[in-house]
Structure to design on (284 residues):
């Protein structure tokens, strides 16, 4: 997460409708596209997770309401609702900003490990509303492969869904927010891990390794290329390497790898016993 001291400006983005109405001059430059913008949202988060994340805790200010705790429940297990937070979903990053505290956070989409629709009760209210639940990875240091990745979880509740009920004919504002985050996440896929060994020990060969291993003359165990063969044994030039019985006739040492039964054998049409000649004729 990146801490913001200034609120995002609408003029810094291209509205989605405008972006979709014309062909951009470049797909790799220009201002980010604004997919969704909502003001006066609420962020619902556990007290302990809020205290552990300084960037999100800066949003709190005086606009926070704590949920009531049950007897015997630790204070850090109660939920906190931070009000008056603006939400910006852009093609570049996901932004949360509190105008009252002049603080915000900018979240890269690859850091959003999970987002989903959720039904919940906001602290300080009795109504059940719909919100966008999010898990954001917050790695503090490199971890072992078997260790669970550190993350912070919170829910964004839009003012338009304060009393919204599920609708079969129209998307709620939160469903629109979910769609916007999903669309922007697709624009930022996870980086491909550089792992050349599969779990079963199979090694994937790069293009450069392919040249050295399989092309004739690229490996000391393989025979040199024959003129005009482009360095490969193919169906067209096989007679330059093997006779009709599969014996090696090209210069140099024969290949050391097994070629399999019948490799290099050329069969004439008359040797194909039992073949019906009519099968070779063109049919309509």
């Amino acid at each position: 997460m990146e801490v913001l001291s200034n609120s995002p400006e609408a003029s810094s983005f291209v509205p989605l409708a405008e972006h979709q109405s014309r062909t951009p001059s470049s797909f790799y430059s220009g201002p980010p596209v604004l997919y969704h913008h909502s003001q006066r949202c609420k962020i619902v988060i556990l007290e302990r997770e809020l205290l552990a994340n300084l960037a999100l805790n800066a949003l709190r200010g005086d606009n926070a309401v704590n949920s009531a705790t049950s007897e015997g429940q630790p204070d850090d297990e109660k939920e906190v609702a931070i009000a008056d937070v603006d939400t910006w979903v852009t093609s570049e990053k996901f932004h949360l900003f509190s105008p009252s505290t002049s603080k915000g956070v900018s979240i890269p989409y690859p850091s959003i490990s999970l987002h989903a629709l959720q039904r919940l009760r906001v602290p300080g209210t009795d109504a059940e509303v719909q919100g966008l639940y999010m898990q954001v990875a917050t790695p503090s240091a490199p971890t072992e492969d078997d260790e669970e990745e550190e993350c912070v979880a919170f829910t964004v509740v839009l003012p338009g869904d304060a009393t919204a009920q599920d609708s079969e004919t129209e998307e709620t504002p939160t469903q629109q927010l979910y769609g916007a985050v999903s669309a922007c996440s697709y624009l930022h896929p996870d980086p491909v891990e550089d792992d050349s060994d599969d779990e079963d020990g199979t090694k994937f060969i790069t293009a450069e390794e392919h040249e050295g291993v399989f092309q004739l003359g690229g490996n000391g165990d393989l025979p040199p290329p024959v003129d005009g063969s482009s360095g490969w044994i193919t169906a067209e030039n096989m007679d330059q390497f093997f006779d009709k019985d599969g014996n090696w006739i090209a210069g140099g040492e024969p290949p050391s790898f097994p070629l399999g039964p019948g490799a290099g054998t050329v069969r004439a049409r008359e040797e194909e016993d039992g073949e019906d000649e009519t099968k070779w004729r063109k049919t309509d």
About this structure: Residues 109 and 188 are 6 Å apart (CA to CA). The chain has two domains: 2-186, 203-269.
